[in-house]
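Researcher: Please translate sequence to structure tokens.
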Amino acid sequence: MKARLRSLLESLMLTPGLSGHEDRVRRLIARELSDLPLRMRVDTLGNLIATLDGDKGAPSVMLFAHTDQLGFIVRKIEPNGLVRIERLGGIPEKALPAQAVLFCVGEGRDIHGVIANKSHHATPAEEKYKVTPYAELFIDVGAESAEEVRKLGIEIGTPVVYAPRVIHLNENRVIGTSVDDRAGCAVVMEVARQLAQGRQRPTIHFVFAVLEEFNLRGAMVAAQAVKPDIAIQLDLALNSDTPDMTHRGEVQLGGGPAISLYSFHGRGTLNGTIPHPALPKLFSDAAEKEGIPLQRTAHTGALTDSSYVQLVNEGVACIDVCFPCRYTHTALEMCDLRDLVGLTELLVSAIRRIDSNFSLDRDLYT
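Model: Translation complete:
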């Protein structure tokens, strides 16, 4: 399984898909799942919804991860051929100078560039520790005029992402672009493959959502369509095992999958997720039965689609189930394949436990 997840993850990470421009990623996922007995459709926003029929008496499940990544949109092309950008998503400005980027003009026609960084030899002391706002940055594509840039296919509105990259570190760890949330997508794909074998399962809607990095738009629309009883979001858990992050919690890279017991985003978006009490018990019981180490996280400052999915219709029982991740939203994020294997095994076991006797009556758990 680990080798299959590695291969899937690499293919997904190397496929660009800025928020609102996820179609290449969606097509890749649909091709990989085409041999499974899934009913697949794509909605107007671009969400891929793949349904696996199961026990009609059991609560239905929506298992989802987001396909998009953060990046930039071309804002202006200077007369000398340098390109200005707007950011899309939570881009860390201090990590941008000297990064390689890719202008997503079209498959086989994408253009490489670099975010300029002022020459060290010309940087005065007062600028050496300054973070340059993204609006003051520019990208160099090697062109000498605006006309030359436009001949490359770059225009106002062209999507730009970190140059897709995958690096394998030792046996288990992977760093590169868009681990958030292509690792989640790879796990959903593997779970679909395993649950398609055998008949013990509820009806499951595997949703590969769009527009998560653009204020959490896509999964809510998919949930409105499929009307699940339970929604399980796969996304990252912030690591706590590097010196700069030890105060954030107890999540260790390589320590196994995690469940989120609390999330809240207080910077502009007053929202978050407190899971339905049936679901932490479901995953804790499954982890104990399968002998899977299960970590727990409670955090502020990050948000997932589940915060809106839980509000659909008369309410959906939601939980975030996570893989530990380091260096989030930079061009080189890190995950551990052992965590992805454990997450897959945990999900398969937990979802198979959702049958006609599984209750969402809160009073049974509190």
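Researcher: Any highlights?
Model: The two ends are 36 Å apart (CA to CA).
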